[in-house]
Amino acid sequence: MAVDAAPIQAVRWDGRRLAVLDQTRLPHEEVWLSLTGAQDTAQAIRRLAVRGAPNIGIAAAYGLAMELSARPSLGALEAASELLSGARPTAVNLAAAVARVRTAALGAGPSTLASAARAEAQRLHADEDAASAALAAHGADVLASARTILTHCNTGALATGGRGSGLAVILELAARHEGVRVLACETRPLLQGARLTAWELTRLGIPFALIVDGAAAGLLRRGEADAVVVGCDRVAANGDVANKVGTYAHALAARAAGLPFVVAGPTSTIDLATPDGDAIEIEERDGAEVSELGGVAIAPAGTPVRNPAFDVTPAGLVTALVTERGVARDPDTASVAALAARP
Ligand SMILES: CSC[C@H]1O[C@H](OP(=O)(O)O)[C@H](O)[C@@H]1O
């Protein structure tokens, strides 16, 4: 199987402009968008041209910096911060990244708003790249005996800095051991698994099979996987995890099958200000994402739709929370706080 040695990059900063690989066009076309400020960056985030909790934070950080380069004023800073933070509600990384760059800009003073914002955005991006490598090592330690891993959505370099979160753990496992392979859930309705994880694993030369989401529980029960590894969009203070819709079902199935359910993500996805999963806002997206496929209706006209884009997995179903700062096994309030506090 062809392996592309070149690392996958979803966002590229040239010091002035942000280019993002338009993920709505993958896997059939590799189209790069050149973003210029808060408006087009927020729009790219809303339509998942750039996606994944860490990567939407990185994009928003650069979007704010570009906005200030064009309009270096406190008014532009506040307006752009509000626009970018509100692009999507569930992933804590988005608002946290904007707040981090806003704070750096305010701390620099009026004449250096833009340069301070650019520098902080680049630091944030570097932090996420480093976090990916470190969490991959911790995750591969936790899952040392696992060879077939079931995963959901897309948690590779298309979603985070570096090589990803969940997929980075799998890549590290494959680097350490023979025989690592993946069961990739297609992840309805936007098919991040079928379109993006399949594209990444093919380029990386990792053996995998694509499955429909509904097949996961039965395959786990039959012992056709050794573990489930997923990403995260927000980890509440008590260890509850918000992630792509369908994750909770996999956690229940893994527990029923006696298999480890591992959540991998950088500590930038931990939100100690949110006490538990019930306090996490779940993004409700356009019903057409469910009732249409490729712009073609798959349900009768006027079919009522619910389209929650995420769900919450209670901490009690999480075997281990893997971050760049270490691992919380059976995560709870104390162990999540300890992870977040580590240098
Ligand atoms: C490793 S990124 C975390 C998370 O982001 C994805 O959501 P989306 O594609 O809607 O941005 C998915 O929940 C991933 O697990």
TrEMBL record:
BP terms from Gene Ontology: L-methionine salvage from methylthioadenosine
Binding, substrate: R51, G52, A53, R88, Q192, N243, K244
Pfam family, one: IF-2B
Presence of the UniProt keyword Oxidoreductase in the record: no
Site residues (Transition state stabilizer), renumbered to this chain: C153
UniProt KW keywords: Amino-acid biosynthesis, Isomerase, Methionine biosynthesis
Functional summary from the UniProt entry: Catalyzes the interconversion of methylthioribose-1-phosphate (MTR-1-P) into methylthioribulose-1-phosphate (MTRu-1-P).
Protein name as it appears in the record: Methylthioribose-1-phosphate isomerase
UniProt source species: Baekduia soli
Organism classification: Bacteria, Bacillati, Actinomycetota, Thermoleophilia, Solirubrobacterales
